[in-house]
Design a protein that fits this description.
The complex is a heterodimer of chains A (331) and B (45).
Chain A lengths: L1 E5 L3 H10 L5 E5 L3 H11 L3 E3 L3 H5 L4 E4 L5 H10 L3 E4 L4 H8 L2 H7 L2 E3 L8 H9 L5 E10 L4 H12 L2 E5 L2 E5 L6 E4 L6 E6 L4 H5 L8 E7 L2 H6 L15 E11 L2 E11 L1 H17 L7 E3 L1 H4 L2 H10 L4 E5 L5 E2 L2
Parallel strand pairs in A: 1-2, 1-4, 2-3, 4-5, 5-6, 6-15, 7-12
Antiparallel strand pairs in A: 7-13, 8-9, 8-12, 10-11, 11-12, 13-14, 14-16, 14-17
Helix pairs in contact in A: 1-11, 7-13
Chain B lengths: L1 H23 L10 E4 L7
The chains are: A alpha/beta (331), B mainly alpha (45).
Chain lengths: 331, 45
């Protein structure tokens, strides 16, 4: 198979590395030619450099979009050239624009996987897995901590001041970014961190995945300083690579007459995990293992157990919270 | 005029104190039972 990786930053480079063995032809393109060349040189054949996006996606089975912006325009170009699309977009705007492509993608019989990174992405798979034992899902709440590359750090900064959307009582409601402080308990070594609402895409992808769900929310970890300064332009230079990031996905639902809560989580470097999730998704797209065509998140598209097993084989491991917040509540 | 200046000064001082308190924060982590277990083997079959 021929795979096009658009973007050779922190996530794109990891995705390309993960795809190196599976792809017969791996083309990499980036606005920063030197960066793309460094990735291709490090990987060796079958990775190769191409000059522009159109060259990359023409003839490709799947295009992995690992860039900060313009996901919709690039997805449209890939669809026009007959390629499926795996996008790591994580902003509300980008994912919302990708979802608008659903009719076109369905008409063409192509897949567009939106938010196939750390969160959304791994968060969506964890939500689907957590819901596996439930007859009905009432609520899904995602918290995430940490950032990957510079684009991710900038998105984190903007998200705190951007408007948030939540699915509440089966309707979309807008909330102020940086509001709704909640102490979220991530796997060690991150532990408990204050999280706030923000311009996150998880609700857009999770609400359609669970019939009858009443509430879906997403929060991101931030210090009080980050929250207060989010209204200003980013003062410091975004780091090339963030530290460990965490995910916590809480699903509330029903098992017969009983109500239950299941909490899953993960700890990893967000850009590494995002690269692995994007690569595994791309392989699944080519192998025809997704549930349907069109635009959707991973919660709607993949069987969570084999997907998580493949991630674990590649070093991205999930965890379950067992304790007072994880038990079945009867009555 | 003097009263206005004093009012503005008081507001400024109050805003500065509020900002410092907001940045410092307070409280700690509440106690929580249980713990995390990695999903492995039987969980992923």
């Amino acid at each position: 198979m021929r795979v096009a990786v658009i973007g050779a930053g922190a996530v794109g480079a990891r995705a390309a590395r993960q795809l190196h063995d599976a792809a017969e032809d791996l083309v990499v393109v980036d606005a920063d030619g030197a960066r793309a060349e460094a990735v291709v040189s490090a990987l060796g054949k079958p990775a190769r450099l191409v000059g522009d996006v159109d060259d990359a996606v023409t003839g490709a089975s799947v295009a992995v979009l690992a860039i900060g912006t313009d996901h919709r325009a690039l997805a449209e170009r890939a669809l026009e050239r007959g390629a499926d699309v795996v996008s790591v977009a994580d902003t509300l705007t980008e994912v919302s624009e990708l979802l608008e492509l659903d009719p076109e993608a369905r008409e063409r019989g192509r897949h567009v996987v939106a938010g196939a990174g750390f969160s959304p992405g791994l968060a969506c798979v964890l939500a689907r897995h957590a819901a596996a034992d439930f007859d009905r899902v009432d609520e899904v709440h995602v918290c995430r901590s940490g950032t990957g590359g510079p684009a991710c750090a900038r998105q984190h900064h903007r998200a705190l001041s951007a408007g948030a959307v939540e699915w509440r009582d089966r309707a979309w409601v807008r909330r102020r970014g940086g509001s709704g402080r909640e102490l979220c308990w991530f796997p060690d070594p991150i532990g408990a961190v204050d999280c706030y609402r923000g311009g996150l895409a998880e609700p857009l992808l999770l609400a359609p995945a669970f019939d009858g769900v009443q509430r879906v929310s997403a929060r991101l970890a931030a210090s009080r300083g980050e929250r207060m300064l989010s209204w200003l332009p980013m003062l410091g230079r975004a780091p090339e690579e963030g530290g460990p990031g965490g995910l916590r996905v809480e699903v509330r639902g029903g098992q017969g007459p009983a109500r239950a809560v299941r909490v899953l989580g993960a700890i990893d470097r967000p850009s590494v995990a995002a690269g692995v999730v994007a690569a595994v998704t791309a392989v699944w797209v080519v192998e025809g293992r997704l549930a349907r065509t069109g635009v959707a998140g991973l919660a709607e598209l993949v069987e969570p157990v084999p997907f998580l097993a493949e991630l674990a084989r590649r070093g991205v491991r999930a965890a379950v919270f067992e304790g007072t917040a994880g038990g079945v509540v009867t009555g | 005029m003097r009263a206005l200046r004093r009012a503005l000064l008081a507001l400024g001082i109050a805003a500065a104190i509020a900002g410092v308190l907001r940045l410092r924060g307070s409280g700690g982590v509440p106690p929580q039972g249980g713990g995390w277990r990695e999903l492995s083997g039987p969980d992923l079959r």
